[in-house]
Amino acid sequence: xxxxxxxxxxxxxxxxxxxxxxxxxxxxxxxxxxxxxxxxxxxxxxxxxxxxxxxxxxxxxxxxxxxxxxxxxxxxxxxxxxxxxxxxxxxxxxxxxxxxxxxxxxxxxxxxxxxxxxxxxxxxxxxxxxxxxxxxxxxxxxxxxxxxxxxxxxxxxxxxxxxxxxxxxxxxxxxxxxxxxxxxxxxxxxxxxxxxxxxxxxxxxxxx
Length: 208
Description:
InterPro entries: Homeodomain-like_sf, HTH-type_TetR-like_transc_reg, HTH_TetR. By secondary structure, the chain is mainly alpha-helical. The protein has 2 domains: 11-59, Orthogonal Bundle (Arc Repressor Mutant, subunit A); 61-197, Orthogonal Bundle (Tetracycline Repressor, domain 2). Residues 1-7 and 203-208 have low confidence and may be disordered. The protein has 9 helices and no strands.
């Protein structure tokens, strides 16, 4: 009976913590979008969320909050693809991989200033982005499947990794995400085309 009484309290506290975290992230996302990442303070986020500065810091510092905001955005895009709301791409390997990354390019391009701050945080390596890391694994596997369909066989895995690294490098290096989304996709498709064409013509392909 004691266990039955304690468990709902524990569950209730966990639910409250999750609601508090969600409120902090909503406030952070709104202020980051309205004021910019650098101009927004932890105290402003606390006021907007109706909590203390200590409560905000328990969720994370500014870097961690921005990573969490993008984790939510990336997760939503990935979920939309996974549950079938996004039609599976078709066409050449380059076109298929371009279509696979387009929803993410659209998401990053919608708020280029914040996306650049997010990229800088990831580059520093001080804050781990769980969803971004999981997405890297998923996209690499999807890219490899495209190359496998194109007949690369054993080299599909390494080609998938190379294509993902090219995508990541282009994304992080883009000086203007809003104007550069089309360029990123075009350049990625060029890389994919070279990978697919090279291995399809090489009778003894080497691992990348």
